[in-house]
Amino acid sequence: MIDIKDKTLLITGGTGSFGETILNHFLQTEIGEIRIFTRDEKKQEDLRLKYKNSKMNFIIGDVRDFKSINQALYGVDYLFQAAALKQVHTCEFFPLQAIQTNILGSENVLEAAIQNKVARTVVLSTDKAVYPINTMGMTKGLMEKLAISKGRDPRLKESDARISVTRYGNVMCSRGSVIPLFIEQIKSGSEITITLPQMTRFLMSLEESVTLVLNAFEYGDSGDIMVQKAPACSVGDLVKALVDIFQAKNPIKILGSRHGEKLYETLCSREEMVKANDLGRFYKIPPDLRDMNYSQYSKAHLADDLQVSEYNSNNTTMLSHEEIIATLMQQPYVRKQLEK
Question: What sign does the dihedral 124-128-132-135 (CA atoms) show?
């Protein structure tokens, strides 16, 4: 077990849904200090007033500014890099902004972590980074490559530090996600707007996302990508379940796919599944540590490799209507909305 007593943890993007959930977890431990690093002073103040906990230290800054993140990481033992532009359609319209935050900002965070000898760094990624077709996925994919590259940095060995990556699918009821939108439309009596009913997506709770990150924090080696297995359902089936839960009769309007959307998402590519370690609830994808002298690393198992399939939201466990309802009813947000 990693010793966290009296240690210092910094969370970039710490005022988001993930940040607050993992904050709740660590406030129940013997951690010494939790630094929340974001550029959103309003959300920081909201968290400060909500928790009023002396362990929490709020720092205004931007991952795009190396000086600010470098100063914030002074004396930090552990780091979760959650700062990102995450909305697919927003990144499609403003790709340079996504590049500056998701790629260049992550480079700043990782370089500052190495310079400050942070012992454990976990970088948060997304299923959209696999076979990416949109800006958000492409920038997150390059962020993963940066983390893997930094994981090979010889300076890490000097301080026995590690940099690993987590990758997960849609987090249910997180800020800006589709379930709160559907519930708002249902309760207001307006049309329920969906893209394509047959689109499939992984379903993961905020608590499960924290479990994945903590698993990488505890067991991830430098350059590892940790993936948590997850069930999936179609967008159409998700809406049907919500309609039943809220006993709604709203009309449904199909909009068609938006900018950069895929019919299904992939958590592990076929190429990654070839080398992934199956750990039960998780896949652990080790880094490719070969150098450019490829002739030294010839492999005679290509035929076997071709039999391996990617792990996506079409070939994972698909939830039935009853299972979707049960999954949704486990979410505190859904239960709270039912009470209103």
Answer: negative
What SS3 class is residue 282?
strand
pLDDT at position 232, please? Answer: 96
DSSP state of 204: B
Residue 318's Cα: distance from chain center in Å? Answer: 21
Residue bearing tokens 């948060």: 124
Task: Supply the DSSP symbol for 10.
Answer: E
Q: Which residues of 165-190 are buried (b: 16+ CB within 10 A; e: fewer)?
A: bbbbbbbbbbeebbbbebbebbeeee
Residue of 128, 140, 150, 262 marked active site: 128
**How far is residue 28's CA from residue 309's CA, in Å, rounded to a whole number?**
40
Place of tokens 């931007």: 62
* CATH fold group of domain 8-169+205-228: Rossmann fold (3.40.50)
128 noted as active-site residue: yes
Helices (H), the chain: 17-27, 41-51, 66-72, 88-93, 95-98, 106-115, 135-151, 154-159, 178-188, 206-219, 235-245, 270-273, 302-305, 321-329, 332-339
**What pLDDT, in 10s, does the model give residues 285-306?**
999 877 777 677 666 555 556 6
Domain boundaries, given as residue ranges, for the chain: 8-169+205-228
Helix pair angle (321-329, 332-339), 10° resolution: 80
49-84, pLDDT tens digit by residue?
A: 999 999 999 999 999 999 999 999 999 999 999 999
Q: Are 166 and 216 in contact (CB under 8 A)?
A: yes
Residue corresponding to tokens 């849609």: 170
For residue range 26-53, list pLDDT tens digits in order.
Answer: 999 999 999 999 999 999 999 999 999 9
Average pLDDT, the chain: 93
- CB contact set of 236 (below 8 Å; sequence gap of 6+): 194, 197, 198
pLDDT at 259: 81
Measured between alpha carbons, how far is 305 from 253 in angstroms, rounded to an integer?
43
